[in-house]
Sequence to fold (684 residues):
Amino acid sequence: MQQVRDALAQAGYLADEGLATAVFLSLSLKRPLLLEGEAGVGKTELAKVLATLRGSELIRLQCYEGIDASQAVYDWDYSRQLLHLRAAEASGEAAGKDTARLESELYDERFLVRRALLRAIEPRNGAAPVLLVDEIDRADDEFEAYLLEVLSDFQITVPEIGTYRANEIPVVVLTSNRTRDLHDALKRRCLYHWVEHPGFEREVDIVRLRVPQVHERLARQVAGAVERLRSMQLYKPPGVAETIDWATALGTLGVTQLDEATVRATLGTVLKYREDHERVTDQGVAELIKHAFERSTLHG
Amino acid sequence: MTAERMAVAFGRVLRGAGMRVPLDSVVTFVQCLDAVGITDRNRVYWAAHSALVRRPEDREAFNVAFAVFWERLSAGDDPETIGAESLTLAVDAEDGDGSGEANDDPAVTLRFSATETLRSKDFADYTTDELAEAQRLMARLRFAGSPRQSQRLSPSRTRTARVDVRRTVRSSFAHLGEPVRREWREPSEKLRRLVVLLDVSGSMEPYARAFLRFMHAAMVGRQRVEAFTLGTRLTRVTRELTHRDPDKALERASRQVADWSGGTRIGECLRNFNDRWGVRGLARGAIVVVLSDGWDRGNPEMLGEQMHRLARVAHRVVWVNPLKVTPGYAPLARGMAAALPHVDAFVEGHSLAALEHLTAVIHDDARVDARSMQSARSMQRTGS
Fold:
């Protein structure tokens, strides 16, 4: 576990103990990992880092309403198939061959358009890829059922060609924003982890790791301010992604410590609702900065 | 002790605490234990967490159960006896938690007495026959959201703007690649999700249970309905209500609702709903039905603000108020007045006939819309 944690940290991802355990178990049991949590806590990022870590390809399947097999698994390249027929016709080949053979030529692998799922389980040399099924809750039930099948057997059958089976089971990470409940069957296939906002010290570490150009003092202040913002019952409490954005913005401006003018000017990188802006400015930016300063020196 | 015995025993403890723990999850847990060992508390905790927890709502119960389990285990107890005993411990602890939270509101009944309340206060004005009849009638109502265009394309018989290349090419192979007939696709239709928010506070008491039955009738066999209750806190009852047997479903749902006939903080509940479910996606493009009389002990400004938020993501917001039928009714309840500007349709809901009208409003959008809207607006004028 500690190795997983260290390895993730080296690749630029600071996981807490729970997440590290979940990743470790998912890797050793070869079970998909289902991550849920607020937007911007680094669910998608984890899959990317896992791919870097293993030196394997990241295959991302972004789900959306109405996604179906032809967009997620495979499709035929119809225009090329037609072209092939025409070419055969033009060269006079078509006349010589029997239809059955010509037809079997049409369903050759070279006309197969491989989509994410098929690519992920296709036998390959080298490390098995990391398959990221992003925002699975956006896809509809039918697709979820199909995905369950793929994730159970790790094989896909293309009727005209045959069955593809993974020679090594890929690492699968699913993310969901909980806009609807996933089916229990799918959840049972997976290991589950609810990703939380990081604690203060870990967030400081994350900022320092991801935005090395900012000074430690500023990183601590930013983390302190964000922690305060999260406690303010905002519509959209800032996630880690926003913290990093904010720190980057401040770094770009060459700021070395928070002050009222810069906070006002850069608040848009952290808060994404007008109402949240109002709430924060109403309660006083000075107050926010004061808290941030106090927090940043508390453990320093 | 082996990992198997530990896993099975802990699975039983969790079930006792009310979590769903299917057997294959226990098997997964055993595999996880094999990977992390069974001696380190943190490792076992996180392994159990990965394998057995399926929704964030369960984490609190899980934490309590695990703490009890581990304590007993390290005290040297036989894991198999813990199964039965600590079950009560775990539940007790959770119960204590709930009452602590509810202390500021004396009207809140405790979780495990809720069923009793439900039984003893069956439909005040209905006889048993009427109840059964009402149930039957409710089940016949087609309570479903209006259709909308889906992103999914399906084959079309008529000519549309989109060629179905796949089917065209497929059929052309029968004619040596001559696309004799072109095939078409069109967007299919999908029913909008329906989100029902039921006010279960004291003032809604005579109606809440009838509505709950109505919600159950609406949900059975249909996928895209979500149900919540509002009171002093927000409770999701979708899972409980999907049980086919109405009595079982109602019993489960009422057991789930801790604040039956308690106070009302609709505004706060709505905020909770918006934060955790609605704005995130559940209410997006959905038809949201609020069943409430609008009496709110909380801050009306908050209610107005949250209704506004909800209205911005929802397709339509329908407010069903059983009091609306009262002669001379004006939405004077501060909450109601604050919510009305953000409501698309304002309808009554005191009787079966009114519920029938409601189904019409929900299902067949636009026409009924204009009328209800007009009445909502005039109400608002008299109200303010």
The mean pLDDT of chain A is 89. DSSP finds 16 helices and nine strands in chain A.
